[in-house]
Amino acid sequence: MSTTNNERFNAEANGWDSNPNVQLATALAHKALLARLPSNSNELSSYDVLEIGCGTGLLSLALAPAVRSLTAVDAAQGMIDVLQAKLLAKHQSHQHDINNVRAVCALLEDPDDPRIQIDPVADHAEKGDSTDMHLRFDLVISHLVLHHIPDLPAVLRTMFGCLKPGSGRVMLTDFEDFGPEARRFHPEGKMDGVERHGIAKGEMQELLVQARFVDVVVETAFEMEKLVETEPGSGIKGPTMTFPFLICTGRRP
Ligand SMILES: C[S@@+](CC[C@H](N)C(=O)[O-])C[C@H]1O[C@@H](n2cnc3c(N)ncnc32)[C@H](O)[C@@H]1O
Predict the structure, then answer these.
(1) Cα–Cα distance between 137 and 5 in angstroms, integer?
(2) From the record, what ranges are coiled-coil (predicted)?
(3) Which domains does the chain have, with CATH numbers?
């Protein structure tokens, strides 16, 4: 990710949660994930989850109570600081203590990156010389992140490497590139760090297969209404447009 992009997300971090579009998209993505995760709560509660591009942790904190652990990674320190503050506040209030989330500031490129080799529950570094001893995840998620990633094949390879062989799965949500109008998802003034105007179904399917995922499914997960600029670049909002979101799933064999 570019420095400009980091600066943008650092600057936006404190006001991030007050954007109703962010809250709505998170709630819809959470629902889409739950619909595809094991309904058996015993199975789900054994899951170690890695979220890449967690932002302020809205989705991480929604999912955390259902799973064993959640490692929440973001490249922007500002976003991670907001998540850390939430975790501290929950801890201090005792009523909503969350002990299974770890916030990590990193631009993840290596599944063996020591910054994610710490179990959020046991809170100790996984030790061992053999690669078999490295921490691997049952589930890797990302939401509204892929459209910011310059090199999709590289990030998919990293995600693949982070998963448990045989059973680990990815579930990635982002708005769909359904044609030229998809550009209107972002106001023209907020195009910094936008690498593509959504993700395309066929391309994602192909990229997941190339990254060696099996059981690959790329499908519409939900649709979201969003106010767009009247005229691109005008800064004036209205009307609303409907944006389809895709969920990309695959398993590491
Ligand atoms: C549009 S925001 C979405 C944040 C959060 N998922 C949400 O929906 O509220 C994209 C986030 O992805 C992060 N990001 C982009 N590329 C990344 C990468 N390669 N590794 C980690 N984080 C990344 C950015 O710092 C930013 O916080």
Answers:
(1) 27
(2) none
(3) 3-251 (3.40.50.150)
